[in-house]
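re: ur question from earlier - yeah i can do the single chain one, its not a big deal. heres the input i used so u can compare w yours
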Amino acid sequence: MFYRIIRPIVRFIVWVLNGHLHVHHKERIPKGNYILAAPHRTWWEPILFALAASPMEFMFMTKIELYKNPVLRFILDHAHAFPVDRKHPGPSVLKIPIDGLRAGKLSLIIFPSGTRHSNKLKSGTSVIAKLSHKPIVPVVYQGPLTFKGLLMRKSLDVCFGDPIYIDHKTKMNHKNEENVDSKMQTAWDKLDKEQNPNFHYVAK
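and the output i got, formated as tokens:
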């Protein structure tokens, strides 16, 4: 309920601050729930992705440090977010999203690189996809990378790609995980070129 209440409020705030959110190829999103996977470029990407793919509701992985603030903790708990200790990740990092996806009501937004400062993909996305029996939908954000750029009302573009399916019989060994990672990276590169071939993101 909270998610449905807060979403139009957030949409209005984004419209006031920028007013130029453009969604491309939403028709590529499959029926049912799924895993939305993206290269991590800004802290507001999860918000834009969730707005772009509505009415679907999403789970989010958030760093555990954010839960120290009681107000923020309340918002995150009621917005389908769950904490992740990046230094000491436990079984819940996989169990919570897998159980949530299997339930069929929520989709998942995930950044396989983990942070905005890395292009190296971490394992986990392919395992979640296999065990939940849900497709991975690649998505990219192109637009301002600073809050100042956001306020200058530069275009915010969200582009969805074709879903990537993993056979549930596939063994998630290192080789197969690398294969899925390669498919995601290829899909992101294709989407970037498709949307704006002049766009280039450099992790700092």
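The two ends are 37 Å apart (CA to CA). not sure if urs matches, ping me
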